[in-house]
Amino acid sequence: MKVVFFGPPGAGKGTQAAKLSECFGIPAISTGHIIRQAMVAGTSVGKIAEDYIKSGALLPDDIVFLLVAERIQNDDCQKGYILDGFPRTLVQAQLMDEKRILVDFVLDIELSDDSIVKRMSGRRVCNACGAAFHIEFNPPTVDGVCNECGESLTIRADDAPEVVLKRLAVYHEQTEPLKAYYEKQNKLIAIDGEGTVEEIFRQIKEVASKAGDLI
Ligand code: AP5
Ligand code: MG
Asked: How distant is the alpha carbon of residue 130 from its chain centre?
C-alpha cells in the first residue's frame, strides 16, 4: 500500500502517519524529518535547507524529490510506504508520476487555520525519532522526554508564530492546488482533522482499509 498524507502544517500528518505505520507495518517517511536530521548532521542538504526551514519556505523540488526517491529504494519499502509531507507542489507530483513512484491514495487531513495555530504553539518534537507531542492535547508520559525513544523533546525552529503563518500561506499558495491534481486521478480522500488523535485515526483506518481492499 502506497499512501500520501496531505494537509496543512500542523494538521496531524506526522502523528497519524506514525500510527498507520505501526498498524500496517509499512514505514512512514516524513520529508520534514529527513531534512531536519540532515540539518542536525550538517550534511550538504542540511546546510542548504537551513534558510528555507527558518523562513517557512519549501526546499527546491529536485532536492526533496531525490531524498524521497533514494529513501524508497530501501528494503523496508518493498510492501509499501506512507509519505508524510511529500509531494507538496505540482512539480513534485508530476516528477513522481514520471518516475513511476506510485501512489494508491492521498489522505487529505483538513483543519482550520485557527486550530492549526493552537496545535503548533504547544508542539514538542523528538529530533532523534521524529515523534511529535503536544503539551496539552497529546502530552508525553514524562515531561520533556520522548515516549518512543527516551530522548529530550524540543520546540521546532519553524514553530515560531511568524514562521507558522508563513508556512500556512505557502501551503495555501503552493500545496493546496495539488488537491485538484489528485481529485482528477480519483485518489483524494478527505479526512476531518478536528477531533482527538484517536477519533481521527479511526476514520483513517476505516478509509485506508476500504481503499486497500480496492487496490
Ligand atoms: P514538515 O515537517 O512536513 O512540516 P509541515 O507539513 O509544515 O507539517 P508539520 O510537521 O508541522 O505538522 P503535521 O501535519 O505533521 O502535524 P503533527 O502530527 O506534528 O515540513 C517542514 C519544512 O520542511 C517545510 O516547511 C519545508 O521547508 C520543508 N519540506 C518538507 N517537505 C517538503 C517538500 N515536500 N517540499 C519542499 N520542502 C519540504 O501535529 C501537530 C501538533 O498537533 C503536535 O503537537 C501534535 O501532538 C498535535 N496533534 C496532532 N493531532 C492532534 C489532534 N487530533 N488533536 C490535538 N492535537 C493534535
Ligand atoms: Mg510533521
From this structure: 11
2 is catalytic: no
Residue nearest to atom 12 of ligand 1 (CA): 10
Q: What are phi and psi of 30, to 5 degrees?
A: -100, 120
The reply to whether omega before 8 is within 30° of 0 (cis) is: no
Per-residue pLDDT of the chain (215 residues), as tens digits, is 999 999 999 999 999 999 999 999 999 999 999 999 999 999 999 999 999 999 999 999 999 999 999 999 999 999 999 999 999 999 999 999 999 999 999 999 999 999 999 999 999 999 999 999 999 999 999 999 999 999 999 999 899 999 999 999 999 999 999 999 999 999 999 999 999 999 999 999 999 888 777 65
Identified catalytic residue from 119, 124, 167, 187: 167
156 belongs to the catalytic site: yes
Amino acid (1-letter code) at residue 184 = K
Q: Which of 138, 148, 196 to mutate to test the pocket of ligand 1 (most atoms within 8 A of CB)?
A: 138
84 membership: H or E segment, kind and range: strand 81-84
Q: How far is the CA of 131 from the centre of ligand 2 (A)?
A: 9
- Closest ligand to the CA of 178: 1
Alpha carbon distance 125, 211 (integer Å): 31
Confirm whether 179 is a catalytic residue.
Answer: no
Q: Are the C-beta atoms of residues 83 and 33 closer than 8 Å to each other? A: no
Which grid cell is 127?
529530533
Q: What is the DSSP letter of 189?
A: E
